[in-house]
Amino acid sequence: MRNLTVxxxxxxxxxxxxxxxxxxxxxxxxxxxxxTGCSGTGQASPTATKASTDAVTGTIAVVTHSTPGxxxxxxxxxxxxxxxxxxxxxxxxxxxxxxxxxSQLIDAAxxxxxxxxxxxxxxxxxxxxxxxxxxxxxxxxxxxxAGLEQSAEFGAETHVGQSEYIAGQGAGGELAKAGAxxxxxxxxxxxxxxxxxxxxxxxxxxxxxxxxxxxxxNIADAKNTISSxxxxxxxxxxxxxxxxxxxxxxxxxxxxxxxxxxxxxxxVSADVTSLILDGSILFAVDQQPYSQGYLPVxxxxxxxxxxxxxxxxxxxxxGPGFVTKENAAKVAEFAAKGTR
Length: 340
Known about the structure:
Elements: H1 18-36, H2 46-54, E1 59-64, H3 71-87, E2 90-95, H4 99-111, E3 116-120, H5 124-136, E4 141-144, H6 148-154, E5 158-161, H7 164-177, E6 182-187, H8 193-203, E7 208-213, H9 219-232, E8 238-241, H10 244-257, E9 263-266, H11 270-277, E10 283-286, H12 289-306, E11 316-317, E12 321-323, H13 328-335
Parallel strand pairs: 1-2, 1-3, 3-4, 4-5, 5-11, 6-7, 6-8, 8-9, 9-10
Antiparallel strand pairs: 10-12
Helix pairs in contact: 3-12, 4-5, 7-8, 9-10, 11-13
């Protein structure tokens, strides 16, 4: 843009006629209006750029293996929907713990021709065909939470989550520091390979780990199962749960059984942070589910609007982190809002 040089009239110059004065004032008023349309480098203003990118919109479908009443997936859903609201994208969310039904939901999402798909894979083999069908249809796919090892093989662009085996090793190591040797690892979803990997990782750092199967859909029964296990084997000196709701049930089961075994869990909720603060739970392994919902929507939106493909074929780690008595109060502030 050419510089506009405004010359002041000499003090002794005669007064300008009315028509010239009007033109002079119009020119002065026009200068700031012209400048607002340009930056100092002559580029379009940020406002103009934002308007052009926001004009590119679409639907991102999220299909997970969530089950009703599982607070963890409520946080994932909140993250995805908030990202959609922040970016002006439409986000749909559906879930089913049965891999056959989840595959059907994925097929339905493919038929709607979304701008992108976000899929969790608790049972990778069970949803493989549906995921590969989405990739073959040219729909960008990002996997989250479960299925890290199979994500690239199935054609997904990246995976947002944590290495469950490494996270399990971290949990086992911390329990070992607390003196635990004989630990029960409570699995709340049958067939979920990610949960089994957590227990396997913990077993790598402990003398003995016994997997105990419960049902996330029946918390009361899960509590009774854990209590019975503790009563039947007094040598159990550690409990590792893999879900916040099951962690609360385990704390109650410990009290009923009179067990002093340290309790640790995966994932965070307002109840879990409270139990960490009062000493009932030693720590929680946090994979940050809000990020697992939020980040894929951001990544797919960037791809739609700017051609960016994030991850470089590698996973984007959202965890693990550890919530202990030292930082639980801060995390609790966010957990109370439903974002941790």
